[in-house]
Structure formats: C-alpha cells, structure tokens
Amino acid sequence: MTALQPYPAYKDSGVEWLGDVPEHWEVWRLKSLVKILSGATPNSGRREYWNGDVLWITPEDLGRLVGRDIHRSRRRITNAGYQSCGTTLAPVGSVVISTRAPIGHLAILGHEGCTNQGCRLLVPANASVSEWVYLGLLTARGELQMLGQGTTFAELSREALGALSLPLPPLREQTAIVRFIDHADGRIRRYIRAKQRLIELLEEEKQAIIHQAVTGQIDVRTGQPYPVYKDSGVEWLGKVPEHWEVRRLRSVAAIGTGGRDTIDRQAGGPYPFFVRSQAVERINTWSFDGEAVLTAGDGVGVGKVFHYVNGRFDYHQRVYKFSDFSHILGRFFFHYFRCTLRNEVLRGTAKSTVDSLRLPMLQSFPVVLPFLPEQTTIVEYVEKRAAAIGTAIASARRQIDLLQEYRTRLIADVVTGKLDVREAAGFRWRDHIRGSRGLVI
User: Fold this and answer.
1) I need a surface site. Which of 84, 101, 232, 408 has the fewest CB within 10 A?
2) Residue 344: predicted pLDDT
3) What sections of 29-162 are H helices per DSSP?
C-alpha cells in the first residue's frame, strides 16, 4: 500500500469536493446511476403491519451496524405493512443510506427490504455498480452532511441526494478498485480486531490484579499468598488474611445521596457534577467538599459506574456518596468497592443486571480492613500496576484510531482517483481498454 502512486494524468472534475480526477474517468450524478426509493412507516396501531418477515431499516439500525452488509433490522414489518405505505421493496445489493441526522450512515442490503422515512434506498440499474456507489457515498459523507437542511433536525432531500456527483471509472477498473479496497479493508479490520482483543485482555488483567490485592488473595509485598487465612463469613469473598477485619460499610463510611437532577448541569461549570454514568458533567454549584466515592444508584450504571473525588462537587439525586471514612483509606475503599459491589448486588438474582441499589444493602455491605499502613501499600501497588496497564491500553486505542483514520483516508484517495491501485489489484491495462465503456445504466 505504501508504494501506491497517482495516475499518470488528471483533469478537473468540475466538482469542488472531488477536485481533479484521472483523465479517463467520468463524473456522473447519483440519480443517473440509481433509482432512489423513499421510505415510510406503517400505522403503529395496526398489529397486522408489524412483527413480520420484511426488513424495515431505520437510521438507528444503520448507526449500530458493524461492517458493510445489513441482514437484520430491530423491527420487521409484514407484506401488508409495506404495501400500506405505498413503498416498493428494494432487491438484495441495493444501497441504503440514512438521510436524517445523523446523515450518511450506509449499508448494502443483504436481503430485500424497505426503510422508514429517515432513510432512502438506492437501486442500481446494474447490480455490479452497488459496491462502487457504496464506496462513493462513503467517501462523500462529509459533503452529504453539509447538504442536509432543517431547523428541528437536519435532513437530506431526495433532490440533493440525487444531484450528488460521484467519480466513475470504467466498469472493469471499478471492479479492480473494489477488489483492492476489500482486501485492504479486511487487513485493516483484522489489525483493529487484534488491538481490541488486546485491550480486553489488558482490562481483564488490570481487574484481576486489583481484585487479588484488595481481597487479600496475594500479599503485594511478596507477590505470594498470605501465610494464614480465615473464613470471612461472606460466601463470595471467601477466605481473607487472618489479621484482616471484616466490617459492614455503615461502620466505615457515611452514606448519602445527592439533590440535583441531570437538567441542572451547566456546560463549562466550575465544579464536577456526578450523574449516573461514567462521564462527569459540570455544574455551577457544589454540595460537598472532601474525599468521597460515588456510584450510580439506579439505571444501567448500577455496579458499573464508580468515581473517586477529593474536592468540591455536586451529585445527582440517584447517586450514592460514601464519605467520612473511618479505619479505611478512601482510595482503598474505591478500589475494593469497585471490584466487589456487583458480587453483592447480583447475589440471589438470576438476572445479569440490577435495577437499583437499596440503602439497607449498602449499609450491610461487607468491607475488608487491613491495617492502614498495609492499605497504603496495596493502593500504591494497584495504582502503579493499573497505570502501566492503562498506558498500554491508551497506546492500543491510539493505534486503533490511527488505523481507522488510515482506512478512511485510503478509501477516499482510491475512490476519488488520487491513488492508482490497478497494478496492486492485478488489473491488466488491455482489459481496461476493452472494457472502458462497459458500464450499463
């Protein structure tokens, strides 16, 4: 890929976002390449229109898609459903695009189907053009988003979509370019998956290190188990070092909830505002000044959202605050609590999630207490190890970002003719001459 060169000769495309294109390429408007079908929504009150076998794609479906082809939609409709809308089913291979914000999400239909009014279907007259249209629109996403209009939400009109200009090489060259991009994209995606798997393993390693240290499975000073253990009296905690104490949370920290709601947040406010997600908002007020640990009291963040803070802040009415620590360091409590809370909240339930945390359960939550100097040693150990792993995770994420940027730039440069991939794709010039007018529309 690094050896790719520009084409020998270029000409002005006449289209600002395209710039110059290879001399032998053409530029066509999208409406000349495809038939544009609009979408619609069947009457939601008619049961006979829903839960059928017909793919019914929405912008949400496209936004969640990983990959190019779409085979499933969150909701399906019946034959009567799409007929009631006066729409037409698009065949396999048609391109579907979201035309309401966010504009420009794309897929190729893996099954015949239709869409709601937030998408449009593009049906090429020649099935072999589908992949090229998909790549062209993928490259033109920024241009499509700028063409969106509307006050309540941005929408791309049928006329503006159809008027979009796309570069068009001869058919055989299109095939060669698509083949090259498929190969390159496959390699890049494999690299990205490998980095994502590395991040998962590093996260698991970090959690295991912290859990072993704060529950006494290893003595961080020696890297070995403690000499003597005793039963903690807590089933999920098991045995703890003999000199450790187990107390209930109410005896080591004060528990309270906030008095604010999400609507109270103020962008650019001087104080942190802790809500029921890992993201920290800002606010103009503060209700507590000091060391505290916070966790979501209900919603999807139960057992997953934890914050440590030391200073002035405000917090949501369904966020629990733990403060005024006694016989336990705030940071030790943070690491221990984050590692072990889910064990307790999920105890006795067959569900993988819990809707809310109750105060009596939190008050009775078992907390281990090494001696304070030992807590300090454990905190220093886990934070040093976690920082090293965090650096490796950040590096892997940065590599993923760079790979994704490279993928986007490579596809754009190839599809707009800035790079010549014919030789890399095994393209033969004699075939190009014979097939230079091979596009059927």
Assistant:
1) 408
2) 78
3) 59-64, 79-84, 130-139, 141-147, 158-162
